[in-house]
Structure formats: structure tokens, C-alpha cells
Design brief:
About 65% of the residues lie in helices and about 0% in strands. The chain starts with 7 loop residues before the first helix and ends in a 14-residue tail after the last helix. The longest helix has 20 residues. It is globular.
């Protein structure tokens, strides 16, 4: 992957997550864009906690992602580079909406800032 040919998602991964970027370079070329979309989606939802001043604002952002995933499943793709790439990956790779929604739900647990009290909670 040269810098000129990077998709929005691959570029975001390159800038923000060096370890995952390196895994993209080792992935089969036909799998890279779908993987970059998943990584960029994870970045988007993982960074919500750091980007908001109150848990409620984070919950609103995560709800936007839930609605985006439901929209993809319903055939209505929001105009957002990560959502658009994720829609392609979901269609091409038959990625389950429920599993991606579970990732969003898990990130919502990060918003309270308390962390996990016991291993079973994790």
C-alpha cells in the first residue's frame, strides 16, 4: 500500500494505530480494505470516551453508530467515509450486524470511567 492509494480508513489506521496498520500490510491484499474498515470503525467507537466531556454525549455518539449499522442492514448508508466503507465490507464479507452492534454496546461500558470491578464484568 503506497500513501497515494490509501483509502480513508487505511489512512486513519496508519495515523492512529500503528500496530493494526502493520497487520494491514501483512494481510492478503484482497482483505485489506474490509479489515481497514473494521479497524477504522473500532477507532471511531473506541475514541468516543476521550472525545466527550460527559457520558451522555458519548452515549449519543454511540447511538449514532448503532443507527448507522442498522441503516446499513436496511440498505440506507449514511454519508460518512467509515460508514460507507463498513457497508461495503459488511456486504462483501457477510459481516453480522449483531456482532458489530455488540462492539458498540461494549464501548458504552467505557463511558462511565469506572472500569470493571471484577473479572466476570470484563
Amino acid at each position: 500500500m503506497s500513501a497515494r492509494e490509501l483509502s480513508h480508513c487505511a489512512e486513519a489506521v496508519r495515523r492512529l494505530d500503528r500496530d493494526r496498520w502493520l497487520t494491514l500490510l501483512f494481510a492478503h491484499p484482497g482483505d485489506r480494505e474490509a479489515l481497514a474498515a473494521l479497524y477504522a470503525f473500532n477507532q471511531e467507537i473506541a475514541r468516543v470516551r476521550d472525545r466527550v466531556s460527559e457520558p451522555m454525549l458519548g452515549a449519543i455518539r454511540l447511538e449514532w453508530w448503532r443507527e448507522s449499522l442498522r441503516g446499513i442492514a436496511a440498505g440506507t448508508v449514511r454519508r460518512h467515509p467509515v460508514v460507507e466503507a463498513l457497508a461495503v465490507a459488511m456486504a462483501e464479507r457477510d459481516l453480522p450486524e449483531a456482532e458489530l452492534l455488540a462492539l458498540v454496546d461494549a464501548r458504552e461500558q467505557d463511558l462511565d470511567g469506572e472500569g470493571f470491578r471484577v473479572l466476570d464484568d470484563l
